[in-house]
Amino acid sequence: MAMATLKDAAARKPVLATIRLIVSAGAARPAPPVGPALGFYRLNLMAFCKDFNARTQKYKADTPRQVTLTAYKDTTFEFVVKSPSVSWFLKKAAGIETASGRPGHNMCRLSHFAMCMRLQNLNRLIHFASTCHLRP
């Protein structure tokens, strides 16, 4: 058992960096913010853009997706696309573009907040179901 653990550790690629980005679904281009972030580590920009756009084509174009990219020392990478932030859902449900410049003065209705919480709980349930391994 201990030998398998050592073997796994030796087989892992050395990580160069972990990069976090927010990119609109289906709109990744080698321009900022993607280009400078990945170009600094000499990663293949076009490979990322094509793969990201393919993975997110089913979402609306204006939906910001959180991306966690792991860059390895051999210039390869892996990335995970996550759901938009809760604040984006809240602003979308309230029908506003930006948050209030004066906190406590411009408020949204409680029904909008409750709807967003239901969406976020649904997202957590879907994630839990996809990671749960049930016996047949």
Descriptive account of the structure:
- It is a single chain.
- This protein folds into two domains: 2-82, Ribosomal protein L11, N-terminal domain, CATH 3.30.1550; 86-131.
- The protein starts with a helix and ends in a 5-residue tail after the last helix.
- A three-stranded antiparallel sheet has the order 1-2-3.
- It has helices spanning 2-11, 34-39, 45-55, 86-94, 110-131, and strands at residues 15-24, 64-72, 77-82.
- Helix content is 43%, strand content 18%.
- It has 136 residues and is α+β, with helices and mostly antiparallel strands.
- The protein has five helices and three strands.
- The model is unreliable at 131-136 (pLDDT under 50).
- The longest helix has 22 residues, at 110-131.
Taking the alpha carbons of the first and last residues, their distance comes to: 26 Å
Assign the CATH superfamily of the largest domain. Answer: Ribosomal protein L11/L12, N-terminal domain
Report the structural category. alpha+beta
Mean pLDDT: 78
Task: Outline the low-pLDDT stretches.
Answer: 131-136
Radius of gyration: 19 Å
Approximately how much helix is present in the residues? 40-55%
Shape: elongated
CATH architecture of the largest domain: 2-Layer Sandwich
Q: Give the tally of structural domains.
A: 2
Write the layout of secondary structure elements.
Elements: H1 2-11, E1 15-24, H2 34-39, H3 45-55, E2 64-72, E3 77-82, H4 86-94, H5 110-131
Antiparallel strand pairs: 1-2, 2-3
Which descriptors apply to this entry?
18% strand, elongated, Ribosomal_uL11_C, alpha+beta, Ribosomal protein L11, N-terminal domain, structural constituent of ribosome, ribonucleoprotein, disordered C terminus, large ribosomal subunit rRNA binding, 136 residues, 2 domains, three-stranded antiparallel β-sheet
